[in-house]
Design brief:
single chain, about 400 residues, alpha+beta, Rossmann fold, Jelly Rolls, 6-stranded antiparallel sheet, 19 strands, about 25% strand, globular
Length: about 400
């Protein structure tokens, strides 16, 4: 099943067009492993860079247009709201699709499955052949790695949707488990991101998965009913500056600098709605600020924007009731995860650097299990006299639901 008028999501058709020298658009959609964090040059020595080089050499007649749609530290919950702007708008002939580890490879919640599967349905429904990558971190080791629930669920989706797969988790885990490769050679710096050698080991199973799909003449399909859930089949990204802003809020451009390149706000967002700090024509900080209110229909709501070292925290209400910020930590005695709740939602880069100019994108999932129907989101910046220049930057309110 495809969108009316859309071509079939055929790997053989991609191969035919490439061999004929037709222009081709390819999107890499995922997190930091798709971007190539820790590669000496993410554009050339990451698995993504190696894949671009491979396709160019395999199909010398075809002019390729490659699009990097990867933001580190994000999963499919944000991805469902980036899909139109960062993937479908590029009119891709092929998409490499990540998010298994960032959605929590050992997780089993239906919300992340719903967002991941929803993206898959929309891409294939638009006639785009998809390669799913199942990446791995250092701490996922064989044989335990093969039992990770999210990984197994995403493999079920691959079977149902007839996608190509790059099973990096299985390939790399086997190399390490058999003693053929040292995991410290793959991940010499941290437990998540390889260096160049590790990325070659990531590239190979993805290449092989693509080649097998082409050789098989595989065509991706959309099952009539979702395998897991269509909980988030309708998504809306409301850009705040497209409407009327409340008193004390103003329009500003997205940051042009950031802590790392895939987190650069201006790559992923339009202008911001800003509260706090000083407007261009004012000497004093703006303190008379009304709460931001957005009415929406759905079961999920999140906010997408940017943060800095002086970013303001904020309070949240849904339907007039406070929503608390949850932090989970492992209890040192019991080893169990224990939740703590706070009224203030943080939105700054203090975790990475205290510098006020340390900019980064901000994605905050506020709630994902609301009752179906209409709701009102209310966001109130928390002004801080010790941080008079502090600002809250929000680009869009993102909502989804049945």
């Amino acid at each position: 099943m495809n969108v009316s008028g859309a071509p079939s999501a055929s790997f053989a058709e991609f191969d035919r067009k490439a061999r004929a020298g037709e222009p081709l658009s390819v999107v890499f959609f995922g997190g930091s492993l798709t971007f190539g964090a820790n590669a000496s040059n993410p554009e050339t020595t990451s698995w993504r860079g190696l894949m671009m080089d491979y396709l160019i050499k395999k199909y010398p007649k075809a002019p390729f247009h490659f699009h990097d749609g990867a933001i580190g530290g994000t999963g499919s919950d944000l991805g469902q709201f980036r899909l139109q702007r960062d993937v479908l708008a590029k009119k891709p002939d092929l998409v490499f699709y990540d998010f298994t580890v960032n959605d929590g490879a050992d997780g089993a919640d239906i919300e992340k499955l719903a967002s991941y599967e929803g993206i898959l349905r929309k891409m294939i429904g638009a006639g785009i052949p998809v390669v799913q990558e199942f990446f791995t971190f250092k701490f996922y080791r064989a044989p335990e790695a093969y039992k990770l629930q999210r990984y197994l669920d995403h493999k079920k989706l691959a079977e149902a949707y007839h996608t190509a797969t790059g099973d990096v988790l299985a390939s790399v885990s086997e190399l390490v488990h058999s003693g053929k490769v040292s995991e410290n050679d793959i991940w010499p710096a941290d437990q998540a991101h390889p260096y160049d050698y590790g990325y070659t080991l990531f590239f190979e199973p993805v290449r092989d998965g693509l080649e097998k799909a082409i050789a098989d003449g595989r065509v991706c399909v959309v099952p009539e009913k979702p395998v897991f859930s269509d909980k988030f089949n309708k998504t809306t990204r409301t850009v705040l500056v497209d409407g009327t802003l409340p008193k004390g809020w103003r329009r500003a451009t997205a940051f042009r600098t950031s802590l790392w390149y895939d987190g650069l706000p201006s790559r992923w967002m339009t202008d911001m709605a800003v509260a706090g700090g000083k407007a261009k024509d004012q000497k004093q900080a703006v303190t008379d600020i009304e709460p931001l209110k957005v009415e929406f229909t759905g079961t999920f709501v999140g906010i997408f924007g940017e943060k800095a070292g002086n970013g303001l925290s904020f309070n949240v209400k849904i339907d007039g009731k406070p929503v608390l910020y949850e932090i989970k930590n492992k209890d040192v005695v019991t080893g169990q995860m224990v939740s703590q709740y706070f009224e203030a939602w943080p939105n700054n880069t203090a975790r990475f650097a205290p510098d006020k100019s340390s900019h980064l994108f901000s994605w905050i999932s506020i709630a994902n299990q609301l009752a179906p129907g209409k709701h009102t989101l209310e966001i109130e910046p928390i002004l801080n006299p010790d941080n008079p220049d502090g600002e809250l930057h929000i680009e869009s309110v993102c909502t989804a639901g049945e």
